Amino acid sequence: MRRLITVLAGGALAVALGASAAGAQDVKQDTRDIRQDRRGIRSDTRDIQADRRDVARDRRELQQDVKNGDKRAARGERADLRRDRKDLRQDLRERRTDRPDLRQDRRDRRRDVRDRR
Fold it and tell me: Rounded CA gap, 57 and 54, in Å?
């Protein structure tokens, strides 16, 4: 009987320690996810800034080409302007989807920390 109690107590202790380790692992993974989301948002923000600069430059060049009467160059600038605007919209869309992911990962980490206690 004493042996059975010792085995059961040891098993309960192992389960408790295993659950604690699993909780710590979840917190670490959530922290990694948060860092990755932040990196993605920063990268998207840099891309957006670059795209906005490209769009502004293309607009200036297009105005200059129209002013000079260079239709071929203006056509090329319009195509470049469309591509840059498309890139800008895509980067804005990506950043909009990354922000909810970041919020969810923060919620997950808070929940895992709370559950660990």
Answer: 5
